C-alpha cells in the first residue's frame, strides 16, 4: 500500500525524535497505533459489508436464473396428470397379521 524505504523511515523517526522529544515519543506511538488499529477495523468492517452485498447480489441473480430454468423445464416437460391419482398404487397392500399375546414364564416365588 505505502512504499516507504528504510532510509525514508529513518528520516521520519529522526525528525519525530527531534520535534517531539524522547520522553513523549512512546506515548505518541501508542496513540498512533490505536488509531491505525481503529482504521484497520473500520476498513475490515467496510470490506466485509461490501463482500456481503456482492454475495447477496450474486445469490439473487442465481435464484432468478434457476427460476427461469425451472419454468423452461416445466414448460417443456409438463407433469403427467395420471401421476396425481391416489388409487392407482401398483403395489398391493400387505395383509395385517393378528396380534397374539406372548406368554412369559413366571419367576419362582421365594417362600
Plain-language structure description:
It is a single chain. This protein is mainly α. It has a domain at 22-78. It contains 2 helices and no strands. It is elongated and about 100 Å long. The model has no long low-confidence stretch (mean pLDDT 81).
Write the layout of secondary structure elements.
Elements: H1 6-20, H2 25-76
Question: What are its keywords?
Answer:
60% helix, elongated, mainly alpha, 111 residues
Oligomer: single chain
| CA(first)-CA(last) distance | 94 Å
Stretches where pLDDT is under 50 for at least 5 consecutive residues are none
User: Given the C-alpha coordinates, what overall shape results?
Assistant: elongated
Average pLDDT metric: 81
Helix content: 55-70%
User: Based on DSSP secondary structure assignment, what is the total number of beta strands?
Assistant: 0
Radius of gyration from CA coordinates: 39 Å
Query: Beta-strand percentage?
Result: under 5%
Secondary structure class reads: mainly alpha
Helix-strand string? HH
Largest sheet: none
Number of helical regions? 2
Amino acid at each position: 500500500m505505502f512504499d516507504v524505504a528504510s532510509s525514508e523511515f529513518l528520516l521520519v523517526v529522526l525528525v519525530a525524535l527531534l520535534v517531539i522529544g524522547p520522553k513523549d515519543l512512546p506515548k505518541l506511538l501508542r496513540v498512533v497505533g490505536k488509531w491505525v488499529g481503529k482504521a484497520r477495523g473500520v476498513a475490515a468492517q467496510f470490506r466485509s459489508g461490501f463482500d456481503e452485498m456482492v454475495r447477496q447480489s450474486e445469490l439473487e441473480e442465481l435464484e432468478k436464473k434457476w427460476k427461469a430454468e425451472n419454468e423452461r423445464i416445466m414448460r417443456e416437460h409438463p407433469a403427467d396428470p395420471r401421476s396425481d391419482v391416489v388409487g392407482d398404487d401398483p403395489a398391493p397392500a400387505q395383509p395385517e397379521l393378528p396380534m397374539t399375546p406372548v406368554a412369559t414364564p413366571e419367576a419362582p416365588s421365594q417362600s
